[in-house]
Specification:
It is built from 6 helices and 2 strands. It is mainly α. It has a two-stranded antiparallel sheet. The chain is elongated.
Length: about 150
């Protein structure tokens, strides 16, 4: 679960789709909000679609969420946009010297610590939904964000 920008962009996309339900949710409009290239948005939207988090109609601009915003967790998004090689939050350096007192034991020492940290992060992400993100965005604005009901 190496955290990269696909994760935050995935969250941004889902929040944008919900907040802008009924408006234009094309990859171009989302890209403008994210400040990136529409091709990047389409790639990440493809990942979100594959994870069944969004519905995209071929040839028609826009997308919609497949579930209620209170049912989509940040963990769901993280899983959707990370590749297999990104599954571990912390990666161990390769081939420490087995003849060194540190190199010989560093992996066995760090692996349980890294595992505990990863499980804590995953638990936190499982407890935060897109609804929580949108509510926080709304609370930071002068005017509340209109949220559609699924």
């Amino acid at each position: 679960m190496s955290i990269n920008t696909r994760f935050s962009v995935g969250i941004h996309i889902l929040a944008f789709l919900e907040i802008n339900t009924g408006s234009s949710t094309s990859s171009e409009n989302i890209a403008k909000s994210v400040n990136t290239n529409p091709a990047v948005i389409r790639k990440i939207m493809g990942m979100l679609k594959k994870a069944d988090l969004i519905h995209v109609r071929p040839g028609i601009a826009g997308a919609s969420l497949t579930r209620s915003i209170s049912e989509i967790t940040l963990f769901d998004i993280c899983e959707a946009v990370n590749t297999e090689k990104d599954r571990e939050l912390f990666n161990m350096h390769k081939n420490p010297d087995p003849d060194c007192n540190v190199g010989k034991y560093i992996e066995d020492t760090l692996e349980p610590i890294f595992g505990t940290a990863q499980r804590a992060l995953e638990k936190t992400l499982q407890n935060v939904t897109i609804a929580d993100i949108i509510n926080d965005i709304s609370n930071q604005q002068d005017q509340p964000v209109a949220i559609s009901k699924m």
